[in-house]
Amino acid sequence: MDETKSERSGSGLIAAQNCPEQLADETALDAFRQHNSVALVEFYTNNCGICQSMEPVIGTVAQALNLSVGLLNPRDDPTLVNRFQIQRIPLLVLFVDGDPVGRRDDGFVSGNELTEWLREKTDRQL
């Protein structure tokens, strides 16, 4: 059984209502982004060290901003990789009203930098 990113979370920094939701596939992703008016999705792989180090940052920011977060391991899904043009991980994609409004694949970012980026992309105070 594969270890999921949410199972690795032992930091205690993520409140229950803001726990990242593990998304199984493209169908789950589409439902998640349609269900949440503002949602951040992290594309990751299990062996990505930067992805693991971003987990508590994303959790803390999600809790502070009351933001829905989804986690998706694209594995070997070429349709998903092509759809989101995934070239590096972690890839963060921000959705507002179901539409992608921003993406980052520049490695580790601090909580302050992530918060600023999210607020800038949503044109409002989260």
From TrEMBL:
CDD domains registered for this protein in UniProt: TRX_family
InterPro entries in alphabetical order: Thioredoxin-like_sf, Thioredoxin_domain
SUPFAM superfamilies, sorted: Thioredoxin-like (SSF52833)
Residue intervals of the Thioredoxin domain: 13-123
Pfam families: Thioredoxin (PF00085)
Protein name, as recorded: Thioredoxin family protein
